[in-house]
Amino acid sequence: MLPFNVRIVLFIKLINFVKILLLNPYFGNRVYAPTLGLGFLATYLKKHIDCQVEVIEPVKEELDEEELLQKIKETDYLGLTCYTESRFSCFNFAEKAKKKNPNCCIIVGGSHATALDKKILEHYSFVDIVVRGEGELAILKILEGEPLENINGISWRNGLKVIQNPEQCLSKDLDQFDIDYSLIYPEIENWKDKEVPHKLQKLKHLPIIASRGCPFNCSFCGSHNHWSGLWRGASPKDLVKNIKFLTEKYKIGYFRFYDALFIGGESQIFEFCDEIEKSGLKIKFRIDIRVGTRRKILERLRQVGCEVVGFGIESGSDKILKRANKGITRKDIEETINICKSLNYWMIGYFMISLPDETQEDFQRSIELFSTFDVFNLQFFKIHPNTTFYEEFKNKNEIDDEIWFNPSYGNEIFYSKETFPSANFYRLNVNRKIKHFYLKHDLNKPRIVIKKYGLFAGLLRLMSSLIQIGFLKNDFSAAFLEKIRRSWIGKMLKSRFFVK
Fold first, then answer.
1. By Cβ atoms counted within 10 A, which residue in 67, 198, 226, 411 is the most buried?
2. Does residue 420 form part of some domain?
3. What is the residue-wise DSSP string for 323-366?
């Protein structure tokens, strides 16, 4: 049960105007794109209850912790989204917030909190409630004063005992959840998708989500479990109606769909394309597709303004694709690449290195694919809770849940030989290789670089890449380059001239 003082305050709030602060507590840096989930949540709450909701994310500028803590003094409910990479930042702020306002009810949600709800409540007494999975219905019931034991999809503390209520049933009607962009637009007004060509950069950009969940169960990803293995999409008619409204209100020319899986069903996609055509919209947009998407779907999407596609390759090795339960083959990858090339898509490929059992020979198969993409993204494999690989590591006693509460492991837990004996790659060795791959990709594709950055910035990028690749030849010069990159000069220029 919640502390008596908190219960009294919550009762008083029911007969007064409730103040809610929804925050992505990522301190010390800016995020590339807003989570949007907080915007959906705020919109839903404003529709169903009299309240004052504020959404804050570090997109435009870094968060000011002291300024936010002053807001907490007047806040009734603090909702924090918790990702694995930002978990310490999240809970450090939650603790300070509770000290600043002991009567504030602190609610934590997000993928990381969903996976470790019980452990979080056991470790952090200042967290009052964890919302698991979809947050709108559960948080509305909390605000309406529903007894906590009657609210599905939450975990909470009754005295010293942690209570995990039954899972909530996910609503099939995704159209009931939308986002009022006026709640977050000041933060994202000048936001840009930096991976697309220069001609698209000239348009006003807006991030958008049209679905939730993924039916596929890749071993490294927690999305399948987080959304109970379900995929739900907004109705094509309502989606296009909303896009048209946003286009007219904010003069948007380019939409970046942040869906784990944009294409849930072929009939739905064709209906979406038909609605775009009927509406007369002349927009450009980007989606992420699954390898194996059929040509006729990609052709139809291209006709109505889809210019950019991204897809998760992860590995070019059939052995590793099978190990990761991707459900695709090297042949499928090559066929999808060829289709997208023939349709003149701007292609972005996502890869990983150091997946379990991956060898240098397996990784070489990935390297062979880098040059087929206009932009590629290579990440060292990071472990996340609530995934098949994580459970596998736990069963082998290589890891346990306590690792997420130990700051000595850092914010990100990489599957590297420095930490895990079963891994085949040292992260320190790989980091320089990753930089080298990015630079080499630039130098081998000067026309693509100019197309992405424009003529002047593109030529500067090529010159910078040529200089940087020379610095990577030995440890001393590589360390010097890294020092420059981390300096104020590097921070100022890195978006165009410095690889990460």
1. 226
2. no
3. HTT----HHHHHHHHHHHHHTT-EEEEEEEE--TT--HHHHHHH
Residues 199, 158, single domain; the answer is no
Residue 157 lies in a domain: yes
Tens of pLDDT, residues 125-155: 999 999 999 999 999 999 999 999 999 999 9
Query: Residue 487 corresponds to which tokens in the numbers above?
Result: 């300096």
Taking 50 as the pLDDT cut, the residues of the chain under it are 15, 495-500
Pairing of strands 129-131, 205-208: unpaired
- In this structure, the answer to whether residues 249 and 300 fall within a common structural domain is yes
Query: What is the reported pLDDT for 498?
Result: 47
Residue 426, in any domain of the structure: no
Cβ(155)–Cβ(121) below 8 Å: yes
Q: Which residue reads 């059992």 in tokens?
A: 357
C-alpha dihedral sign at 85, 90, 95, 96: positive
Tokens 């929804």 — which residue? 22
pTM of the complete model: 0.90
Is 33 part of a structural domain of the chain?
yes
Shared domain for 87 and 12, answered yes or no, is: yes
Length of the chain: 500
What pLDDT is attached to residue 5? 62
SS3 call for 150: helix
Please give the pLDDT value at position 464: 87
